[in-house]
Amino acid sequence: SGTAGELLLRALEDLSELDFKKFRDALAHGALRGRGRLPWGRLQKADWIETKNLMVDAYGEEAALDVAIAVFERLQLRHAAAELRESRERGYRRSYKRAVQRAYSHIKDPNARVGDAVSLNARYSQLVIVNKPRDEEQRKHELVAVGRRHAELMKEQASSSIVVGDLFKPGPDGWTPREVVLLGAAGAGKTMTARKIMLDWASDKLFGEFDYVFYIHCREGDLLSSRASLADLIAQRCPGSSPPVAEVLGQPERLLFIIDGFDELRCSLDQPRSELCSQPAEQRPVDVVLRSLLHRRLLPESSLLVTSRPAALRGLGACLACERYAEILGFSEAGREEYFHRFFESAEQAAAAFQLVRGNETLFTMCAVPVVCWIVCTVTKQQLGRAGGLVRSPKTTTGIYVLYLSALLRSLRGRPRRGVPGVLRGLSCLAAGGVCRQRVLFEEEEVRGYALDRGEALPLLLNEHLFQKDISCVSTYSFVHLSFQEFFAALFYLLEDQGGSRDPPAGPPRDVRELLESYGSSRNSFVLTVRFLFGLSNEERRRELEEETGCKITRGITQELLAWLQNSQRTALALLLQETAVIRELEVCHCLYELQDERAVAAALAPFTGVQLRGLELGRFDQTVLSFSVRNFPGLESLDLGHCSFPWDGPEAQRGQQPAEGKLSPIHPLCQALEASGCALKQLRLDRCRLTGACCGALASVLGTQPTLTELDLAGNEELGDGGVTLLCEGLRRGGCQLQTLR
Q1: Which CA distances in Å does 588 have to 280, 349, 591, 594, 675?
Q2: Does 271 lie in the same domain as 193?
Q3: What pTM does this model have?
Q4: Looking at per-residue confidence, does 440 or 100 come out higher?
Q5: I need a labelling partner for 278 at 20 to 30 A (CA). Which of 234, 263, 320, 585 fits?
């Protein structure tokens, strides 16, 4: 350990008297690779310390080491050269780790005052990560922002959960992966996990097999238009004016590159391999350097950890033959409670906030997604500080975001608020254009073009990013999270024009029909935007927004949305055959749930007679959403949930057990909704849903209220048990059994 000068002194002290004399002679008379020679008169009688000082004064500390290594090699003192090189590299590695610790030990909370930061170790909570391959069907059901896969874990997922430290460990076959992909929906915690890996590695808690770990976010590849080499990128991340990049690259098998946000890489991945680079010193556009790393043309012996949303997995697979996939599911129930305790300043405050949120099952379930948990904690903390506390817990995603926006606007107290409507129109126009073009980063000039400046816009969900470009830095902006951008994109279609405000540049057409048509052809890009459209059409949400923002929100869009929703579920064949329509997509229920208007939902469902959602994993939030539609569906005649699963996340689930006797089963909310709807079911299919005896009480209660039921399919549910079947039979008898088909 020690400074470069101390390393040089120790190397000189280890030389024999003859070698030390030859060393001084070479400094005075030899070729020093372009460095100036030192006067022999000062070197002739110099001791180790004096020689070291002369070299440092003449060359600087780092360059003095370069000169010493070059002289050792010229004098055939290979062992001394190698030892100095290794000592220098070890010392630099410690210096780099200290720099990483400083850079990654704290995070900027978007709500914090300028200069305030939060300790990453104090805030970070354990996430559930599963290690298993994903098939085409699973990828098809990628969930955005508040995705349903993050609500609970199935028994198989719980049994296959891993920790971050396992990502590069050998598999069952003994093979150690070099390419690992860490998947997660938007807001699942991928970037936070990547930053925690950097901090834990630098603190010697993780991945000790790697000498260096470098973090690269794909946004940098989008914004750096200048040419750079991988060596340049590494040097930019290293402390000091002349880091030993050659030594760092000398053992590529000891390097780990974390490439964060692959889904944000906008460049084409199918360009010819001849355009890729293979040498770390090759100057290319940064996106080419990143693609060369991913294609394994550049430093193929190094290891890669790539984070991505599942929607981009197909593109990633086209360039990277990944050896291990893992997926972040979010927080378990215990993880959510841990996060609350880490977020709040006192244990009493944390307990009070957690109880408030835990009491609202829907809201608590959504907190399985880290970004939603953060929003809820932020809003709850602000509400707890006011008289009456959290008066009304928001039920929907839209409700949470409206409450959060309201809290941000209230933070502007003391500043002029007359400009807020114009700022919101600019933000919504910026957001909608970004969603349509699938962009998350905006140049400073573009942001200013929307009448947004630092003083007004940054407190309203815009983050500033600084990126190196040539010899200067450029400012870019993004919404705090993609889901916030989609919230403002929905607002774009609902804000009415008001006179007296500066017109922003032309954005996308403010035509809801065009947006809905785009959703039909590219659903991954617009799922949340459309959900927020339904949520913002709710009369209470609209009134809240108008009061808080001073903006006028368009009325009368609900009927247009519901008509579109109805048409989206009518297949051409069903129309041709004049068959009654059935709901075939869970997303319909998500949209109706955001609307939270029971009369409008019942009217929207009136043309339908059934729900057919087969092969889905219905987490608790999905069940809540589905139950809301079923409760307002008096015309429901057929419910087909075959091959669906109903996981839960109570303590028993974490241990792989069934709910204890007396506790609600996972299917209980749906059964309650069926009873409350007053529907006359004719067909109920729950085949191969892995139902257990714990579900039979709630299901028997439903059967006892359905005398019209003629078909019941429970095939493949082998864990119902004799007691469960007895309960079902009793329920059928109470309902005046009219079954014609029983499986």
Answers
A1: 50, 37, 5, 10, 21
A2: yes
A3: 0.63
A4: 100
A5: 263
CATH of the domain at 27: 1.10.533.10
Q: In terms of Cα–Cα distance, which of 618, 571, 563 is closest to 590?
A: 618
Alpha carbon of 709 to those of 100, 620, 669, 740: distances in Å?
Answer: 65, 26, 20, 9
Contact 696/719 with Cβ under 8 angstroms?
no
Q: Return the top range by mean pLDDT from 151-165, 306-320, 547-561, 652-666.
A: 547-561
- Among all chains, which residue has been given the structure tokens 């360039």? 319
705 and 676 Cβ atoms separated by less than 8 Å:
no
The residue range of the domain holding 65 is 4-99
User: How long, in residues, is the chain?
Assistant: 743
Q: What pLDDT band is residue 257 in, cutting at 50, 70 and 90?
A: very high
Q: How far apart are CA 114 and CA 425, in angstroms?
A: 25
> In whole angstroms, what is the distance from residue 403 CA to residue 501 CA?
25
Integer Cα distance of 271 and 369 in angstroms? 36
Give the strand pairing for 462-469 and 179-183: unpaired
Which residue, 711, 665, 222, is CA-closest to 442?
222
**Does residue 300 share a domain with residue 216?**
yes
Considering the domain architecture, whether residues 581 and 718 belong to the same structural domain is answered as yes
The residues pairing with 276 across neighbouring beta strands, listed in sequence order, are none
Which residues does 159 contact at the CB level (< 8 Å), separation at least 6? 656
Tens of pLDDT, residue by residue over 367-398, are: 777 877 887 888 788 777 666 555 555 678 88
Helices (H) and strands (E) in the chain, counts: 36, 20
